[in-house]
Automatic annotation (TrEMBL):
<dbReference type="Pfam" id="PF04402">
    <property type="entry name" value="SIMPL"/>
</dbReference>
<dbReference type="GO" id="GO:0006974">
    <property type="term" value="P:DNA damage response"/>
</dbReference>
<protein>
    <recommendedName>
        <fullName>Oxidative stress defense protein</fullName>
    </recommendedName>
</protein>
<dbReference type="InterPro" id="IPR007497">
    <property type="entry name" value="SIMPL/DUF541"/>
</dbReference>
<feature type="signal peptide">
    <location>
        <begin position="1"/>
        <end position="19"/>
    </location>
</feature>
<keyword id="KW-0732">Signal</keyword>
<dbReference type="InterPro" id="IPR052022">
    <property type="entry name" value="26kDa_periplasmic_antigen"/>
</dbReference>
Length: 229
């Protein structure tokens, strides 16, 4: 008896894969800062733990008093750092006892105004507190959201423009978007771009002129386009 063997027939359909074009869209904006952040640093080094704390506290109290006199509430004066450490003293390479370093940092934030900034600097650089000062400029929350949205739109437009030029130059046309990547470690607006950072004891000189530079904020987006002949 003969067996009937059926061999199924498969129809193979070949689908040509679309080519892919990867583009980085970039955007940069210069914006005028709307927030000022001032950080005061006070340090006292003494042989006695209690003396180091007492002298630092006296200077902190004097600084706080100066800030409240020019309109800052105590709730607006934040302690950014507080530290007490013990160091070993040396003389000609030989240990000569211990000393204590007491450190405290105060931070204030306010809407940017050159007039207000100068007032704060000139009124808080007293001989009694004699703080070192660090100044940074940044964006308000509302400004940051607005700039972030604008940068994203600009970056996407830049990516599209680059993709169209590259596709046309190579004889392709854009079919669509395959993938969008945003939010890598190098992307996203930097809210406190360090265009103006400084450390200075303002007790030494009166500030009569101080202008904040614009912040340079950048962003990028990675887009993969599908292209075809």
């Amino acid at each position: 008896m003969k067996k009937l063997i059926l061999i199924p027939f498969y129809l193979l359909t070949m689908v040509a894969a679309l080519a892919q074009l990867n583009v980085t869209g970039q955007a940069t904006l210069s914006v005028t800062p709307e927030r000022t952040i001032i950080t005061y640093s006070i340090n006292e080094t003494r042989d006695s733990y209690d003396e180091a704390i007492a002298l630092m506290t006296k200077r902190i109290d004097a600084l706080t008093a100066s800030l409240t006199k020019i309109g800052f509430d105590k709730e607006e004066i934040k302690t950014a750092n507080f530290n007490i450490r013990q160091n070993r003293k040396y003389r000609q390479g030989e240990p000569k006892g211990e000393e204590y370093v007491a450190s405290q940092m105060l931070e204030i934030r306010f809407n940017h105004s050159t007039k207000r900034l100068l007032e704060v600097l000139n009124k808080t650089a007293s001989d009694e507190s004699a703080p070192s000062v660090s100044i940074a400029f940044g964006m308000s929350d509302e400004q940051e959201e607005k700039v972030k949205k604008q940068l994203m739109q600009m970056a996407v437009a830049d990516a599209k423009s680059k993709a169209e030029v590259l596709a046309e130059a190579t004889g392709y046309s854009i079919k669509g978007i395959k993938e969008i990547n945003y939010g890598s470690s190098n992307s996203g607006p930097r809210p406190y771009a360090a265009n103006m950072g400084m450390m200075k004891t303002f007790a030494e000189s009166d500030m009569s002129n101080f202008e904040a530079k614009d912040l340079t904020i950048s962003d990028q987006v990675f887009i993969s386009y599908e292209i075809e002949k």
